[in-house]
Amino acid sequence: MTAGRALRRGWRLVRMSGDEWRLLLEAVWLLAAARRRLQRMAPLPLRRTLEEATPRRGSPGRLPDTQVAVAVARASRLVPRTTCLCRALALETMLRARGAEAEMRLGVRREASGGLIAHAWVETPTATFFADPTERTVPLPHFRTA
Question: Domain count of the chain?
């Protein structure tokens, strides 16, 4: 990272509001917890564990979904080895805690070598967050948890 880029990133952090700082800290905590726990358990039980550990925040209109997604994206740069699955789990948990309708999706795409690459993202009724930029990922069927 160049010095100029680091300085711009630093100024962005300085200008953040109190709500943005709280979102960033919550996202860092959830990403770190997701990454650590994914090493020991499957994603679905982990999803329930994260939701139980996250307090409900109330109405979805208080902060836009995009602002929550930006906080998760920023936090993912601060937590080492964060994967798309960690980001999707954290974002889905934070949006649901705020009363928003959000669903983590999983999909796969074929590599040029013939292998498969998995990807996770979050869909809401109005937006898709952390989608595959190549748009070649084929979503797996929806799965529901009890």
Answer: 1
